[in-house]
Design a protein that fits this description.
Elements lengths: L1 H24 L4 H19 L4 H14 L4 H14 L2 H13 L4 H19 L2 H14 L3 H14 L2 H13 L5 H17 L4 H11 L1
Helix pairs in contact: 1-2, 2-3, 3-4, 4-5, 5-6, 6-7, 7-8, 8-9, 9-10, 10-11
């Protein structure tokens, strides 16, 4: 009986969706937003009440293809992909979700959290790099900056790391111990990996 009830609701939502599609074709721009809302409701019922995960996933994917900033669908897809351990698609929708958040600091906070999830569950810091870098673009704060520096160091991306160490040196929110540590590393890499003796000396003098 419960399944029949939810199937009836799906049928009603489908009928309303069809009506709104006709309204869209006649130039009613408000109908698009309403139709997307009905599609999200249908996907939620498929996912949560009828337990038709594959059908729900397909519908959520079609929604975000049409409406890339539809946060509820993006969140649902991220949970689906996380359960399936499909990390590449999870990363794609999480990045998309962050872009849909209008407040840069909130978007950056989500990206930092997602980067930590990747490092913990996927154990591939380099995979998290795109999250840290985008977070830093949105909010210039130490956590992202230092995470990126560590990844560059592990990757032996010396030129990028050298530029980042200059940023660390000038950053007002980096504590002195951390700044000195990275300046020491910066001096060594400038001498050993970039063959730049002047820069090495400059970094070491900055510690004194």
């Amino acid at each position: 009986a419960k399944l029949r009830k939810w199937q009836n609701i799906l049928d009603i939502l489908q009928t309303r969706t069809d009506i709104l599609e006709v309204a869209e074709q006649q130039g009613d721009h408000l109908a698009t937003e309403q139709r997307i809302g009905l599609l999200v409701q249908r996907a939620d019922i498929l996912q949560n009440q009828l337990r038709k995960a594959d059908d729900a996933q397909e519908l959520y994917e079609s929604i975000v293809e049409e409406s890339p900033r539809e946060l509820k669908s993006l969140d649902a897809l991220s949970q689906i992909y996380e359960r399936k351990r499909d990390w590449e698609r999870w990363a794609q929708v999480r990045l998309q979700s962050a872009e849909a958040i209008d407040i840069p600091e909130e978007s950056a906070a989500q990206l930092r959290g997602d980067a930590l999830i990747i490092e913990k569950k996927v154990r591939q810091p380099a995979f998290a790099l795109r999250f840290w870098e985008r977070a830093l673009e949105l909010e210039d704060e130490p956590k992202s900056l230092l995470a990126i520096a560590s990844i560059y160091e592990a990757q032996q991306s010396w030129v990028q790391l050298d530029e980042l160490i200059s940023h660390i040196d000038q950053h007002p929110d980096i504590d002195e111990t951390t700044r000195v540590t990275w300046l020491q590393k910066g001096g060594t890499l400038a001498l050993d990996n970039l063959d730049d003796r002047d820069k090495a000396l400059e970094r070491w003098y900055a510690i004194i």
